[in-house]
């Protein structure tokens, strides 16, 4: 049975399940469709997934999207051959976010996603040199308003690392998963109420893993981590919660919107 989830976490979980369903159904039907039909289907699925992810992740319905974002010529594909949104799509999304009246939290989530895909967000997570562990990035960046010096928005980045692994601290044994979340641009960690809600699709086991301060980036940005006995199999995880930081000018309480990941533990 699933643990008790917040409304925002439930929405993110539904969004992740929807994305997985679209991916699986698309792969199953691929052999029966022509390349042109596959391209058209991929275009529609991508538009649906991008719109749903933003709306579900923010926990609010999005304003009506402009026609240029929701429809285009038949040969129009919003992603490149690696599955990344094309530059013109990111530019349209940026213009949409900056020119359309909407809640600040949704605007921040859209701009955070754009920065993520453009590679503009400089990672401040320090990883050891040499062989790095296999990890899964959470699908979309999280966002917290008035988080940096209690004035500016902060982008949160989460990863899942299937065990066995020694990093991130506290590591994970075989059949476990380690989780890490960093609030980029923030000060030192003070308190944390970040959690990961997970569900194993193969064993039907579920749980909640609190993320605590484990000495990662002690001078900032605020970083929390933890592990969970997910077991082996395909796992869905939803990460959300809040952290309190110690800033130079003003301490801050940062409430992050949910983000989700789907990964396999071998």
Automatic annotation (TrEMBL):
UniProt keyword terms in alphabetical order: Signal
Signal peptide feature range: 1-29
Domain of life from the UniProt record: Bacteria
Name of the molecule in the record: Tat pathway signal sequence domain protein
Species per Swiss-Prot/TrEMBL record: Corynebacterium matruchotii ATCC 14266
Top-level taxonomy: Bacteria, Bacillati, Actinomycetota, Actinomycetes, Mycobacteriales
């Amino acid at each position: 049975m699933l643990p008790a989830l917040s409304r925002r976490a439930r929405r993110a979980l539904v969004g992740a399940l929807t994305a997985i369903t679209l991916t699986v159904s698309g792969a199953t039907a691929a052999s029966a469709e022509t390349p042109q039909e596959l391209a058209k289907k991929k275009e529609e699925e991508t538009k649906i997934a991008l719109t749903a992810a933003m709306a579900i992740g923010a926990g609010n319905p999005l304003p009506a999207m402009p026609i240029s974002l929701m429809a285009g010529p038949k040969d129009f594909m919003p992603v490149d051959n690696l599955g990344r949104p094309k530059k013109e799509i990111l530019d349209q999304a940026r213009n949409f976010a900056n020119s359309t009246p909407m809640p600040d939290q949704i605007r921040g989530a859209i701009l955070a996603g754009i920065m993520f895909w453009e590679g503009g967000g400089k990672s401040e997570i320090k990883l050891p040199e040499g062989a790095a562990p296999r990890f899964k990035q959470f699908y979309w960046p999280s966002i917290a308003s008035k988080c940096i010096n209690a004035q500016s928005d902060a982008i949160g980045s989460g990863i899942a690392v299937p065990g066995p692994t020694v990093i991130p601290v506290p590591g994970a044994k075989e059949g476990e998963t380690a989780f890490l979340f960093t609030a980029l641009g923030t000060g030192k960690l003070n308190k944390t109420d970040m959690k990961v809600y997970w569900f194993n699709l193969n064993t039907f086991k579920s749980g909640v893993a609190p993320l605590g301060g484990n000495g990662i980036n002690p001078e900032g940005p605020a970083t929390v981590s933890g592990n969970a006995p997910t077991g082996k199999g395909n796992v869905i995880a939803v990460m959300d919660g809040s952290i309190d930081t110690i800033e130079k000018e003003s301490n801050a309480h940062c409430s992050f919107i949910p983000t989700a990941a789907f990964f396999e533990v071998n």
